[in-house]
Amino acid sequence: MEYLLPLKSEYYPLLFGVALFWIIVYILIIYKGFKDQSCGMPLASICANITWEFLFTFLMPFHPLQQIVTLVWFLLDCIILLQFLYYSKNSYPKRTLHASVCFLIVIAFLLQYGMAVEFHDKMGIYSAFGINLLMSILFIKMLLIKELQGQSLSIAYFKMIGTLCASILCYSIYPQSILLTIMYILIFILDVVYILLVYNKSIKIIHMSTIYKKPM
Fold first, then answer.
1. Whole-angstrom Cα distance, residue 23 to residue 25?
2. Long-range contacts of 65-72 (CB under 8 A, 24+ apart)
């Protein structure tokens, strides 16, 4: 098999950063989810992530090292999906919940496979940044609805750093791509907004707890 991932030495720190920081993001989401008894990732993002990782781990791997990383991501996302199913069981009918998850997974898989084939995107870069952009939007929406349940400032920072590593790496490989460049910029802006919103809500919570602790 022809492996497509460039392995120039200058890419190693960025590749390591993408792998490490996103693993940290997933672990922190899982930890915060168990702590708050709430899933810290929107369902659409979970399904999109899992199908991308499944596709490029088992069906269209592009490098053995990256295959290991995507497998780790896939397993962590499976835990996050189980968290969503467990903590949402009282909010939706079981049949509706499972049908929705299956429906979104099938749609996400077909779209990502179609994109990889249609645009000859054998590394899934376009779909990966599309998913990341979706996550940035949905994380902000989730924060506005659920407050800080399942979310934290650490998650926000590591998501931004991991994505920034991926953006710099992909820009160095495909500097001519206007679409990718637009997505790099939009994701970074939205991640900064997300960090500011999480920080603001965290400060408010600390301030309120301080008020309630003051002696009467």
1. 5
2. 65/5, 65/15, 66/5, 66/15, 69/19, 69/23, 72/19, 72/23
**Concatenated DSSP letters of 8-47:** -GGGHHHHHHHHHHHHHHHHHHHHHHHHHTS-SS-HHHHH
- Has residue 1 got a pLDDT over 50? no
pTM of the complete model: 0.91
| pLDDT tens, residue by residue, 55-66 | 999 999 988 888
DSSP 3-state of 161: helix
Cβ contact 48:131 at 8 Å: yes
Structure tokens given for 47: 């399904």
pLDDT in tens, 25-65: 999 999 999 999 999 999 999 999 999 999 999 999 988 88
Q: What is the 3-state secondary structure (H, E, C) of 102-145?
A: HHHHHHHHHHHHHHHHHCCCCCCHHHHHHHHHHHHHHHHHHHHH
